[in-house]
Write a structure and sequence with these properties.
By secondary structure, the chain is α/β, with parallel strands linked by helices. The chain is about 40% helix and about 15% strand. An 8-stranded parallel sheet has the order 1-2-3-4-5-6-7-8. Helix 9 packs across helix 10. It is globular. The chain starts with a strand and ends in an 8-residue tail after the last helix. It binds zinc ion (ZN). The site of zinc ion (ZN) has 6 residues, from loops. Zinc ion binds next to loops.
Amino acid sequence: MWIDTHCHLDAAEFAGEHEAVADEARGLGVSRIVIPAIGRANFGTVAALAAACTNGSYALGIHPMFVPQTDEADLLLLRAAIPAALLDARFLAIGEIGLDFFIPALTLSPLREKQEHFYIEQLKIARDFDLPVLLHVRRSQDMLLKHLRRIRVRGGCAHAFNGSFQQALQFIELGFKLGLGGAMTFTRALQIRRLATELPLSALVLETDAPDLSPAWLHPMRNSPAQIPQIGAALAGLRNVPVETIAAATTANALVALPRLAALY
Ligand SMILES: [Zn+2]
């Protein structure tokens, strides 16, 4: 059994095939797919998609790359949407939220501060409703950590983690699991492969970030949640343990990071 802890199944790349893609993954043992939102425009879509797919579940949040198109009303709408969402067992977390300091325009004033504001306010929503968060981490590890130390949430997943070993340990200490996916399957990805090999197995979850971040054997074609078992096998190879060990551990870890998942089994 496997869990894809981060998959943009609502992306246009999957148009007309969402359920077939989810079913294909289910046939390969991917018992749960977590679909994060990117902003108010797709809150309804991810919830509906999670309901339409047997193995679907979702998160609600405003993605840092979409912060330029948002305003305060979006934060109010997100907060107001949570009580109803909590009645839906498929709703798991606040996400995808975080900071992106890779895209140049987002690192400059005033967007830099606006990103930070949206991140902080969404951490407060997660804290107030005792929900985990799905974090977008891109050249922003230390700033993300700074606010996580101040606004205590119940952990979650640091998605597509690509920081230092020391930073990884700090996220783990704050209750986070680190999401590993296609990037780990490239032999040149030395830093990520070191994290995959040396971090405690109890800290790792698997994800595809589909349709993006295809594994080496698929690149540059569209990624899909059906790749999770093979990505898990790659992690088993790196750690030199049986693939069943990886499946069991990463599934258990996802249930720790996203406790509402348990109600779906
Ligand atoms: Zn994402």
